[in-house]
Amino acid sequence: MTQPTEQFVISTTAQLDLLFEKVSDASLKKEVSNIHPRYRQLIEASPFCVLATSGPDGLDASPRGDPPGFVHVQDEHTLLVPERRGNNRVDSLRNILTDPRVALLFLIPGVGETLRVNGRACITTDPELLQRFSMEGKLPKCVLIVKVEAVFFQCARAIRRSNLWQPVAAEVPAKVPSAGAMLEAITNAQIDGELYDRDLQARQQASLY
């Protein structure tokens, strides 16, 4: 691992403040402690978010996705997030059991601005809430109730720099290793990558909900 040269390491807030310009008035005033109606529009248009948590075994940031509006705005201080089927690691949920602090980053295809929500979550299996999130006749495993503490939008610079919503060049997917190829390499061929990839799409489709 490359060790940073000590004289260039930023270790105080004073040093950090010197590195960046003053925060703009808009950047400060856009943060609120509730789900403003305009922010609600972003949440209801989003089909994808990243959930970040922290726990005794470390940090976790994992994707969540469903049709737009899959995260329900219960009221201006509460979000409901369904927990669908996945790989059963449930790293996020394990973290929430010991540290309820969560952060959500909402993305909307074609839109540069993202929405950030910080709050505290608990896990529920309330039958009425599970039923509310039924998809294709299947219920989520549980629902996260997020009590909102801070909400603000992030400007589009990162999205613009990355060209995230631009058409993807045909050669890009070919350069990325498949799930099976990664597993085969990481496990020293204990997992047959070709076999894993062959059945993956059908297996995922059968277990979406």
Automatic annotation (TrEMBL):
InterPro entries cross-referenced by the UniProt entry: Pyridox_Oxase_FMN-dep, Pyridox_Oxase_N, Split_barrel_FMN-bd
UniProt superkingdom: Bacteria
Residue ranges occupied by any Pyridoxamine 5'-phosphate oxidase N-terminal domain in the UniProt entry: 36-155
Gene3D superfamilies with a match to the protein in the record: Electron Transport, Fmn-binding Protein, Chain A (2.30.110.10)
Pfam families: PNPOx_N
Entry-linked PANTHER family: FAD-BINDING, PUTATIVE (AFU_ORTHOLOGUE AFUA_6G07600)-RELATED
Protein name: Pyridoxamine 5'-phosphate oxidase
Organism phylogeny: Bacteria, Pseudomonadati, Pseudomonadota, Betaproteobacteria, Burkholderiales
